[in-house]
Amino acid sequence: MDLYFIKFKATSKGTAEVIVGYFFGKVNNVPEFDFVVIPIRFSDLIDEINIESNLFDFKEQLEKVKNELKKQSGVYDITLAFLSYINNMLNRRGKIAVGIEFSTAVKNDETDVLSILISNLLEEWSPKMDVILKAEKMMLEEYSAMSFLEIKEDFADEQVANVYSRADIVDLPEVFPVIDPINGTSITKFDVGDRIYTVFLNPGKYENKLKEFLEKKESSKGFFEALEGVILSKEIVRTKTGTLYLIKVEIAEGIVAKALVSPVLKILYDSGEFAMKKQRQMKEITKESQSKNAGTIKVEIPPTTGGELIISFLTTLLIVAAIIIIMYIFMR
């Protein structure tokens, strides 16, 4: 388990409203959250959100209802107030501490504990709310596969088809980078030579070779295993809907795969390795700057004081006066 996702509906008879939303985060980490507060008079909107839906569908349903509430004068202000309230409650109780409690309860399938934790967070807003919840635990590989399915339609582009039909691309197996929705970074930050974790979508003609490789690793996940590779090439693919990046990744000796990646996705990365890379880049920039400065001749003009200017001016006047006197004498 790498991620937890807690969806719930909480109904308050005292305030005549329904709170729908989620907590989402990495194990033992600060949870992200989003909610809408729906007054009972807009109860038809409540049915638009199904807590049995998967992560992406639930978020989409929540956003749709949120947009509907924004159209009603003053109604969305309640949601804004509640979001501020939840943020304050998490700060008071410690966001990481709450994240650890959520992680432990989800990992152990303790629905009753989760219900108590959420009720405690809501008690100062409205005590004794009826809470219905659904919790999911996910691996990063699962989340990555779901992310790929969500954006797959973006790949249905003529330019993508042309790229995939190229001789150097067409027979390569296809992978997708492992997504870290909380702490990940964009593919734009990766360079050729950087390491990247990927999951196989289609091993193609490398299926047998990949099976042998996974058996040596004693993998229990099969093709669903997150494998570390090295980026061999990276190029931009412009489509009708935006920009994608085509990369070639060497997964193991003799196994080179392709991946088409959207820059909006947050990809799992080694923060220590990236920090070292940034240091190297800064050193190279400093070195280049020093090299350019070494070949430049600087001419420094010593500063001139006000007293020196007066002396120079008086000296010039004396010389001019002397010349005028001499000319006067010889012209007589």
Offer a concise description of the structure.
With 332 residues, the protein is an alpha+beta fold.
SSE order and pairing:
Elements (H helix, E strand, L loop, with lengths): L2 E10 L4 E10 L5 E8 L3 H4 L8 H16 L5 H18 L1 H13 L3 H12 L7 E9 L1 H12 L6 H7 L9 E4 L17 E8 L4 H10 L10 E13 L2 E11 L2 E7 L9 H24 L11 H26 L1
Antiparallel strand pairs: 1-2, 1-4, 2-3, 5-6, 6-7, 7-8, 8-9
Helix pairs in contact: 4-5
Protein described:
Helices cover 43% and strands 24% of the residues. It has 2 domains: 3-138, no CATH class; 143-271, no CATH class. The mean pLDDT is 82. The protein is built from 10 helices and 9 strands. The termini are far apart. The radius of gyration is 33 Å and the shape is extended. A 5-stranded antiparallel sheet has the order 5-6-7-8-9, with helices on both faces. A 4-stranded antiparallel sheet has the order 3-2-1-4, sandwiched between helices. With 332 residues, the protein is of the alpha+beta class. Helix 4 (95-107) runs antiparallel to helix 5 (111-122).
Give keywords.
332 residues, five-stranded antiparallel sheet, 10 helices, alpha+beta, four-stranded antiparallel sheet, 9 strands, 2 domains
Major sheet: 5 strands, antiparallel
Distance between the termini: 112 Å
The chain-level structural class is alpha+beta
- Please tell me the total number of domains: 2
Runs in which pLDDT lies below 50 for 5 or more consecutive residues are: none
Count every beta strand, where a strand is a DSSP E run of 2 or more residues: 9
User: What fraction of residues sit in β-strands?
Assistant: 15-25%
Q: What is the residue-mean pLDDT, rounded to a whole number?
A: 82
The H-and-E topology, N to C, reads as EEEHHHHHEHHEEHEEEHH
Task: Give, in spatial order, the strands making up the sheet with the most strands.
Answer: 5-6-7-8-9
* Percent in helix: 40-55%
